[in-house]
Write a structure and sequence with these properties.
Helix content: 40-55%
Protein name: 6-phospho-beta-glucosidase
Number of helices: 16
CATH class: Alpha Beta
GO molecular function: beta-glucosidase activity
Strand content: 5-15%
Organism: Anaerorhabdus furcosa
Oligomer: single chain
InterPro entries: GH (IPR017853), GH_1_N_CS (IPR033132), Glyco_hydro_1 (IPR001360)
Structural class: alpha/beta
Family: Belongs to the glycosyl hydrolase 1 family.
CATH superfamily: Glycosidases
Radius of gyration: 21 Å
Length: about 500
């Protein structure tokens, strides 16, 4: 029987850097997202090249005023059209919407002492609009959009001062939006520091003399984010009575290719590393193997005397995570067929369907992930990103018949229900992205996720008008019946 708990928070998720646009108005400063390029000549499955940013890229982007190849500068114009979009979310019956705050709307350079009031006014009205629509805001403080000034002048999160800048920013957010926002997240996919260091922590790896020095710097930056997250959690609880703070990680479930113990060990190793980021924020301490790794590599990760106590004392209230695909590890990986994806390149799983962007679609893996996370941490879980990028076709009659999207969500929802039936406490589900927006990795519009179609192409051409896809009414029914309609399908 398919049953979701009463009060289950159905909804969707977007990020400011991918949907807002308006990158240079009302006092907003440049962020790392504003230098992200659309690269039409790079294979969409080439994960590393799509994400890579060099100092030359940054310098060129800072001089560029045209947004043609910088799609995140225009997004889907959510900055001006959020009321229209929220009305559509309300029509779908959303209980919650995950959004992020662009740090550079409040602090254009990141190191100012006073915030930009126009930025505060914008988000206050956004959250009030959500409240009027009976939609609970879930707000991410930092979602791949740190101030570019802090990258250029402070080496990003490697610099300890950035902790203080972030804490000041978080405090302003809590004080400004305490009446509208109860649920918060600190850093989006904090584990992505090694997948795309520039986007996550503002680190340009080419600045370091070798790979090892860059890795040490990334760990240093990560430690600073852990400390900042804990301090923000403390402030959130103090400033907003009854508020809840969550961490946000990528759940990268890895299977062994065979029952060969060596394959099993490689998969365990990957899963252990993935758990490290959650361990620190939920359990409050670094796992021993990380200290061992630092010692073995000769890394000197600088910590202030109270850092570990702060991390231990101020842990998160719930765990939120993204889930898109599972991975496979093998001792014979070099001889195996590979697939790309939104995480990295890995061994192909012959039992799974692969999307046109190289994702291995694995609904059962979501159930496994939910059970593993709940058994390990005994904390409430919240799936805040899950979805499939596809090329939608607008029919002659103006409809978008996205049955493939419906099938994807149906299969994943059923697995969530099975995990809940096994005792997992799941707070809610927000699909990524509930309205078409600029893709994080490829900076494309034609990689579409939404229940709502946005008339714009990869180069920014189009009316930007919104249209309902077939999946719109389907998801509306799922929410209205709290998932019970899935039993009929």
């Amino acid at each position: 029987m398919i049953k979701f708990p009463e009060g289950f928070l159905w909804g969707g998720a977007v990020a400011a850097n991918q949907c807002e646009g308006a990158w240079n108005i009302d006092g907003k400063g440049m962020s790392v997202a504003d230098v992200a390029m659309y690269k039409p000549n790079v294979d969409v499955k080439d994960y590393v090249s799509q994400w890579h940013v060099s100092q030359k890229n940054v310098d060129e982007a800072m001089k560029a005023t045209d947004d043609t190849y910088y799609p995140k500068r225009r997004g889907i114009d959510f900055y001006h059209r959020y009321k229209e979009d929220i009305a559509l979310f309300e029509e779908m019956g959303f209980k919650t919407l995950r959004v992020s705050i662009a740090w550079t709307r409040l602090f254009p350079n990141g190191n100012e002492t006073e915030p930009n009031e126009k930025g505060i006014e914008y988000y206050k009205d956004l959250f009030k609009t959500l409240r009027k629509a009976n939609i609970e805001p879930l707000v991410t403080l930092s979602h791949y959009e740190m101030p570019l000034y802090l990258v250029n002048h402070y080496d990003g999160w490697v610099n300890r001062e950035v902790v203080d800048f972030f804490v000041r920013y978080a405090k302003v957010c809590f004080e400004s939006f305490k009446d509208e926002v109860k649920y918060w997240l600190t850093f989006n996919e904090i584990d992505s520091v090694f997948r795309h260091a520039f986007t996550t922590i503002g680190v340009l790896e080419e600045k370091y003399e070798n790979k090892e020095k860059a890795e040490e710097a990334i760990y240093q930056a990560l430690h600073h984010q852990f400390v900042a997250s804990s301090i923000a959690t403390k402030l959130c609880h103090e400033i907003i009575p009854g508020s809840q703070m969550g961490c946000m990680v990528t759940k990268t479930l890895t299977y062994p290719e065979t029952c060969n113990p060596e394959d099993i060990y490689l998969a365990q190793k990957d899963n252990r590393v993935n758990s490290f980021y959650t361990d620190v924020q939920v359990l409050g301490f670094y796992p021993t193997f990380i200290f061992k790794e630092w010692k073995r590599k000769g890394f000197d990760i600088k910590m202030e005397k109270d850092d570990l106590d702060i991390i231990q004392k101020y842990t998160v209230d719930f765990i939120s995570f993204s889930y898109y695909m599972s991975m496979v590890q093998s001792i014979n990986a070099e001889q195996r067929e590979k697939v790309g994806g939104n995480l990295t390149t890995g061994v192909k799983n012959p039992y799974l369907h692969i999307s046109e962007w190289g994702w291995q679609v694995d609904p059962v893996g979501l159930k496994i992930s939910l059970i593993d996370l709940y058994d390990r941490y005994h904390k409430p879980l919240w799936i805040v990103e899950n979805g499939i990028g596809s090329k939608d076709v607008v029919e002659e009659n103006g409809t978008i018949q996205d049955d493939y999207r419906i099938e994807y969500f149906r299969n994943h929802f059923k697995q969530i229900a099975l995990a809940i039936d096994e005792g997992v406490e799941c707070m809610g589900y927000t699909s990524w992205a509930c309205i078409d927006l600029v893709s994080a990795s490829t900076s494309q519009m034609t990689k579409r996720y939404g229940f709502i179609y946005v008339d714009a192409d990869d180069l920014g051409n189009g009316t930007y008008n919104r249209f309902k896809k077939k999946s719109f009414d389907w998801y509306k029914k799922v929410i209205a019946t709290n998932g019970e309609c899935l039993e009929e399908e």
